[in-house]
Write a structure and sequence with these properties.
The protein is an alpha+beta fold. The protein has a three-stranded mixed β-sheet, with helices on one face. Strand 1, helix 4 and strand 2 (109-114) form a beta-alpha-beta unit. It has helices at 21-33, 39-42, 55-68, 91-102, 120-123, and strands spanning 71-81, 109-114, 129-138. The longest helix is centred in the middle third of the chain and has 14 residues, at 55-68.
Length: 142
């Protein structure tokens, strides 16, 4: 799973939850931007309830907390670092899925893919990583 979308590939990520690296990065970015900690605090891997948990549920829950804190999303900008699979063919589907989870317009969600150019764990296909930046603004209506 990458960004809530099943991306066909001959390998999968290992993790306590469903290991969706992109949704985890987005969850962290939203929580961090709102000063609400991080994904490990909200969904610790020591809690059996999080075993195999759908990352979309974590993102939605974090987004609810962010909204309750009086924030709204300006944009979410993410990069997936993977030699393979290529992200470009799934970019629009991922943007739409993330927007659906958050209840925002897909134009507020940006997803890019970058390879490791054959260098390091990403380039050797030993790892996949994601980084995300969330821009929030105070909801003046609250």
């Amino acid at each position: 799973m990458i960004g809530g979308i099943a991306v066909p590939f001959d390998r999968g990520a290992l993790g306590h939850s469903d290991a969706d690296v992109l949704l985890h990065a987005m969850t962290d970015a939203l929580l961090g931007a709102a000063g609400l900690g991080d994904i490990g605090q909200s969904f610790p891997d020591t809690d059996p309830a999080n075993k195999g948990k759908d990352s979309a549920e974590m993102l939605a829950s974090a987004w609810t907390a962010v909204r309750q804190g009086g924030w709204r999303l300006v944009n979410l900008d993410a990069v997936v670092f993977a030699q393979r699979p290529k992200i470009a063919p799934y970019r629009q589907a991922i943007r739409c899925r993330v927007a659906e989870i958050l209840g925002v317009d897909p134009e507020r969600v940006s997803v890019k893919g970058k390879t490791g150019e054959g260098v390091g764990p990403i380039g050797r296909e030993e790892a996949v990583a994601a980084e995300c930046v969330a821009l929030l603004i105070r909801d003046e209506g609250l």
